[in-house]
Design brief:
single chain; 368 residues; alpha/beta; 10-stranded mixed β-sheet; 12 strands
Length: 368
Amino acid sequence: MPPLSLLIKPASGSCDLRCQYCFYADEMKHRNIPNYGVMSVETLEILVRRSLEEAEGMVTFGFQGGEPTLAGLEFYETFCRLVRTCNQKNLPIQIAIQTNGMRIDRQWAEFLARERFLVGLSLDGPRSVHDRCRVDVRGEGTFKRVLEAAGLLEQAGAEFNILTVLTEQGAREIGRIYNFLVSRGYLYQQYIPCLAPLDGGGDGYALRAETYGQALKELFDLWFADYRRGVKVYNRYFENLVGILAGYQPESCDMRGRCSLQYVVEADGSVYPCDFYVLDQYRMGSVVDHSFAQLASSPAAVRFLEESRAQPKQCDSCRWRSLCRGGCRRNRPWENGELGLNQFCEAYQTFYAYAGERLMSLAQSVRR
C-alpha cells in the first residue's frame, strides 16, 4: 500500500446540532441502517493496527461525523495509545478532527494540542450568518459556543482552521464573512459550497451557480488585496489553483479531475470511497474483514473510480479545463447513465476569467 489516508466516523452520523443543510443527515436517510452508533474499541484497534501494518509512508487519520467528539474523549485517548503501540514501522502520522465545537472544553482543547491534532472548526461567519443554519437540538444558535471553543483551542495552543459552509444566503454576504474571520485572526480558511439534498430541493440554502460565481470573485478580491498588503490568509481553494498553475498536483480531491479513494470508515467498520457516498451501494467492505488492498480492488471501489473518469464533451474545448478538471462528482448530475456537467460550471468559468491573470502572477512567483 502507498501512504494511507482514512476518514473515520467514530460516532457515525450522531450529532448535537441540527444544521439545516447537513449533507450527512441526508445520506443517512438513504441507507438501510441510518446510524451505526459509536465505534467499539475492538473495531478501533483493528482499524489502527491494520492501517499501520499495511501502509507505506505516512498515515493520516481524519475524524468526522456527524460530530466525532460524541465518541468521547476516552475513545481518542485509546486511539492515541493504540497508534503509539502499533506503529512498529515508525511511520509519520498525521491526525485531524472536524468538529462543531460544542463539546470542546479545556480538557478537550489541551488533549488536542498535546496530541497534535489538526482541528477543523465549523464556523459560517458572524452571528447573523452562522446562526441562520447552525442550530442545536432546541433550535438555538451556536455562534457564541463556537467562539468559546476557538478561544479554548487558542489558549491551549492547538492548531485549528475554519471550515465555512457557503449557503445561498451566506454567499451573498461573503465580504462580511471574510472580514469577520480575518478580524478574529482566523487566517486558515476553507469554504465549502452548500449542496442540495440527494433527492433535490434545498430551497433557501443550496448554493446556486450565479451566486457562487459572484461570491468567488468578491472573496478573491479581498484575499488578493490582503496578500498584496502582506496579510497571508490561507484559502484552500485559491491555494490549490495557484499550485495547479505552478505545476503542482492539487491536494484537494475535487480538483484532480477524477475521484480517488478516501477510505471513509463508518462506526461499524464498513468502508466507503467518499464522504459524499457513504451509501449502501458504494460499500467496499469492512476494515474488520478486509485488507486495504482488497478494499481498493472491490467491485464498489472500481465502479466508483470508473464512473468519475467520464467527462462531458463540453469540457473538451473549455479554456479552463486544466483548472476546473470537472470539479467534484457530487456536483455533477447523472445524465444518460454518466456524470454530467458540474452544476457550478458557470460559476467557475466566470471566476477564472475574472481572476485568471492574478492567479497566474501568483503561480509565477511560486515557481521563482
